[in-house]
Automatic annotation (TrEMBL):
Pfam families: SPO22. It comes from Nicotiana sylvestris. The gene is LOC104212911. Keywords: Meiosis. GO terms for biological process: meiotic cell cycle; regulation of synaptonemal complex assembly. SMART domains: TPR. This is Protein ZIP4 homolog.
């Protein structure tokens, strides 16, 4: 018997209520989605809430059919809402991809429909549910979230596996089976699971249902995979590409046998021709030149309009068979045939050059000159042919480099040089120089420095060596220097830049020499070039800024610091600068922070920045508005962090300087601010004084009186900033952390103790701290202990702090009796030291308070040793009255000691002796 069959009606009714509640939650979320404004980002809370509800709903399965129908409607409603949002946002028409959050909602809709995929009363529920997963998978695939896409496609496949194909009659549903398999195959291909991708395509062959369009779709996918493998130029993938294209060709042939409409026939024939052309390319890569020619023959026999690539394929095949006559015939045919695009002809020439060039450069030059002869050789014709052979130098790859290599050999040939050397060809010579220069520049931009250098060197052949052209030659030498720097041939680059400097000494040459020294890691040489830059006539401060960037990239910190420091010298002169002074300071401090043990240098530069801040004002130094506030905050925070860092490293003198700078930076007002960072100024001042005191203790020295007064003035400054209608402590308590308030109090207490006639100020300070809301008993305990010992002790402060701390501890629900015992001992000692005769009653009251505290405590809860100390010292205090004959006073102390001893475990023997002595007294 099933569990739900033996469960009570109340439980089943409760489960139905849960179903309704969860469905209501889902419906509420869907309503929010329907109200969402199209075109705005979808919050992730939609999918998260829906996913949570579905998870809870899933745990309550199985469901009644009525619930399944409700879930079914909710899923379609969510799906339609997503469709409306995507349509309204124009995803399809604008070409934008659906965002990930939208895809998550589609996924939720599919998962929701899956919960009710076995609902009764709806035709083909499994196919409909599978279609949701399929469409969602397509979206994930477009977003390149292939794991999610694969999950959806597998879910759809599982659903369809339960449907008998023989029961499917609709063409759309049949095509759906094929599309799902193809989509799943594409996703497997994207995650490099080629075996599964091809297996899924093979499985799809049983889903064609004698429909021509299906044959075309599957064949096209085979062809797409084949082309993808072919585009990678992998030798191991050529065989696989061939198999895939053969499968595509076979499907086209089979499709043509079942085709019924003329347009279907044309489409399949076009795909068949395209497949044959790519098959020819595959055979060409496999060096199967006979097969290439067979493909070309079939295509030429079957096509009315010959594709331009056929002549190229045929020529390459004849070249592969070493039958240069037929290859030349194909090449000549392309030149004569006006229907062949010029780009195809140039591609064929490149291929011809590539093969013939293997025999030697002389053969390449001969062929090229032969072509020039057919073009009526002239200077202009040579320029046009060289331009066509070069093609688009912006394209990267081996073919582009090959074109440049051929052109490099050709333009350096004596016959070409002679052709362009006459006085009447100066225009063409300039054009050739520009052509070669632009080609080399494109290779330089694509970082092919070897080819770029070779072409730049050849361009110098077409640059006159007269005086008027010396600047252009110097420019060529500088560019060649850049090329060889890119090739890391720094010595050769230095030779070129030296030649350029001889022709045209300027800032560019100095800067390139700087870069060479920098790349050689010769810091001294780089710095010397930096120092030489301002002496150049065309010097601008931008070069120092660039030098700093170069040094930062090379991680050469000494050069970076030198360049930035030199750049800072120009700001007071009023020159036009490449960037703001504050940015240079920030970069310099950041660079110094990356090196070890640079705290002193950082402090020096921060002080330098503060000096400029004082000279210019906050608005001019930092900038106005939000930018200025960010810059100020950066310096403030870095000064604060440096103070913390040096403090943690026990460099308290530096720490104090950094914190003082932080207070100055935080206090700078931007854009007429009425209130600055007063809180951080206050904190920085407190930390400054704390660091001064820590430095004093570290050096084991004593602050001079003027230093003490200076420290007190810093604390007074912090207090003055915070004074308002409320008291200073109230204000402090409201805005700074308890630890900093304690630090403020402790530092002030310590400094006041060094001056005469400040005892009352100390007591007032501690009383105010004790009355604050953030007063911590541990802080009072520390103050009390500090005030009770040392040469500058203050028993009044100590007594007040310890008494107040004791009151706070005893008011706690679980007092720390270790601290309570320590405080009681300290109070008794204080009262014994300061006026024993007059404070006997107060001392007795402390003992009584201790006794009252111990009453009701568990054994051992009050520290045993401290309890013994209380009992023994109370008993011993009776010794003097006994000697003096003051029996009543002696009995009072003995009774106190005896009462305390009764609360201490392990003092039974002592208690017996005490009781006997008291009885005999």
């Amino acid at each position: 018997m099933k569990i739900d069959e033996i469960s009570s009606p109340e439980l089943r009714g409760g489960q139905n209520d849960l179903h309704s509640q969860l469905c209501s939650q889902i419906e509420s979320s869907i309503k929010d989605i329907e109200k969402h404004v199209p075109g705005t980002a979808l919050p992730d809370s939609f999918s998260t809430d829906l996913r949570c509800s579905i998870s809870q709903l899933n745990s309550l399965s199985p469901y009644p059919n009525s619930v399944k129908l409700h879930i079914w409607k909710l899923s379609y409603r969510l799906w339609n809402a997503c469709v409306d949002l995507s349509n309204a946002a124009g995803f399809k028409t604008s070409g934008h991809k659906i965002d990930e959050e939208h895809a998550k909602l589609r996924q939720v809709s599919a998962d929701l429909l899956f919960l009710a995929s076995d609902v009764s009363g709806i035709p083909s529920p499994a196919i409909k549910s599978a279609s949701f997963f399929y469409k969602t998978g397509l979206i994930w695939h477009d977003l390149r979230k292939f794991e999610h896409a694969n999950y959806c496609f597998e879910k759809a496949t599982d659903l369809l596996s339960k449907v008998e194909i023989s029961t499917i009659s609709e063409n759309e549903e049949k095509r759906f089976l094929l599309d799902l398999n193809i989509a799943r195959s594409r996703t497997a291909w994207e995650v490099s699971d080629r075996n599964l991708a091809v297996a899924l395509l093979s499985r799809s062959k049983s889903m064609l249902f004698a429909v021509a369009e299906n044959y075309k779709a599957l064949a096209n996918q085979y062809l797409t995979f084949g082309k993808a493998i072919l585009s990678k130029n992998e030798a191991s993938g050529v065989n696989e590409a061939l198999r895939l294209m053969n499968d595509a060709l076979e499907l086209c042939e089979r499709g043509l046998t079942v085709v019924k409409r003329t347009e279907d026939t044309l489409a399949l024939k076009e795909l068949r021709s395209k497949t044959l052309r790519f098959l020819a390319v595959v055979h060409l890569q496999r060096d199967e030149f006979e097969s290439v020619l067979k493909c070309v023959k079939v295509l030429r026999d079957g096509e009315k309009d010959q594709h331009p690539s056929l002549s190229v394929l045929a020529m390459k095949a004849w070249l592969g068979l070493r039958r240069f006559g037929e290859a030349e015939k194909e090449l000549r045919g392309m030149v004569v045939d006006k229907g062949i695009p010029e780009g195809v002809w140039v591609s064929a020439v490149e291929s011809y050059f590539q093969v013939v060039g293997a025999a030697g450069a002389a053969t390449v030059k001969g062929v090229f000159l032969g072509l020039l002869g057919r073009c009526h050789v002239s200077a202009g014709a040579a320029i046009r042919v060289v331009s066509k052979v070069l093609g688009d130098p912006a394209g990267a790859g081996e073919e582009t480099r090959l074109r440049a290599k051929v052109v490099s050999d050709l333009v350096s040939d004596d016959r070409i040089l002679t052709l362009l050397s006459g006085e009447d060809t100066s225009r063409e010579r300039t054009a050739m120089h520009a052509l070669l220069w632009n080609c080399a520049a494109e290779h330089f931009r694509s970082k092919d420095f070897q080819t770029s250098a070779e072409i730049f060197e050849k361009s110098l052949l077409y640059n006159p060596s007269d005086i008027e052209s010396r600047n252009l030659r110097a420019k060529g030498f500088r560019v060649l220097c850049l090329c060889y720097m890119g090739l890391s041939q720094l010595d050769r680059a230095q030779e070129y830049i030296n030649e350029a400097e001889k022709l045209e000494p300027n800032i560019a040459s100095t800067f390139l020499k700087f870069k060479i020294y920098l790349q050689k890691n010769e810091c001294d040489g780089a710095i010397s070039q930096l120092q030489a830059m301002p002496s150049r006539l065309d010097f601008t401060t931008e070069f120092l800024s660039l030098a700093a960037h170069e040094a930062i990239v090379c991680r050469c910190h000494p050069v970076t610091v030198a360049s930035l420091s030199l750049l800072l010298n120009f700001y007071p002169t009023g020159k036009q600068m490449p960037t703001t002074e504050v940015v240079v300071f920030r970069t310099l401090v950041t660079t110094l922070s990356q090196g070890p043990q640079n705290d002193s240098d950082i402090l020096k530069q921060m002080k330098r920045a503060h000096t400029r801040l004082s000279e210019l004002g906050a608005d001019k130094f930092f900038g106005k508005g939000e930018i200025g506030r960010r810059e100020r905050n950066w310096f403030s925070v870095n000064a604060w962090n440096s103070g913390v860092k040096t403090g943690q490293e026990d460099q308290h003198a530096l720490s104090a300087e950094f914190f003082r700078l932080a207070s100055e930076f935080y206090g700078a007002s931007i854009d007429e601010e009425k209130e600055g960072n007063h809180v951080m100024v206050c904190k920085s001042l407190i930390m400054t004084v704390s660091a001064i005191i820590s430095d004093e203790r570290q050096r084991k020295s004593t602050l001079l009186e003027n230093k003490v007064k200076e420290a007190i003035s810093l604390l007074d400054r912090a207090g003055k900033m915070l004074r308002s209608s409320s008291t200073e402590y109230d204000k402090l308590e409201a805005i700074i952390e308890p630890n900093l308030l304690f630090m403020y109090t402790w530092c002030a207490f310590d400094l006041y103790s060094r001056l005469d006639d400040t005892g009352s100020q100390q007591l007032l300070l501690i009383k105010r701290f004790a009355n604050s809301k953030c007063c911590n008993p541990n802080h009072l305990l520390q103050i009390g202990i500090d005030a009770s010992q040392g040469p500058r002790s203050n028993h009044e402060v100590a007594t007040f702090a310890l008494s107040t701390c004791l009151s706070i501890l005893l008011a706690s629900s679980s007092p720390d009796y270790e601290s309570v015992a320590l405080i009681l001992r300290k109070l008794i000692c204080l009262r014994s030291i300061h006026g024993a005769d007059s404070n006997d009653d107060a001392t007795m009251e402390t003992y009584k308070q201790a006794y009252r505290i111990m009453v009701g405590l568990r054994e051992g809860e009050y520290p045993v040793e401290e309890a013994k100390w209380l009992a023994m010292t109370a008993w011993n205090r009776a010794a003097i009255p006994v000697r003096m004959g003051n029996v009543d006073e002696a009995k009072r102390w003995m009774s106190m000691g005896l009462e305390l001893a009764k609360k201490v475990p392990g003092m039974q023997t002592y208690r017996s002796c005490m009781e006997d002595f008291v009885a005999g007294l």
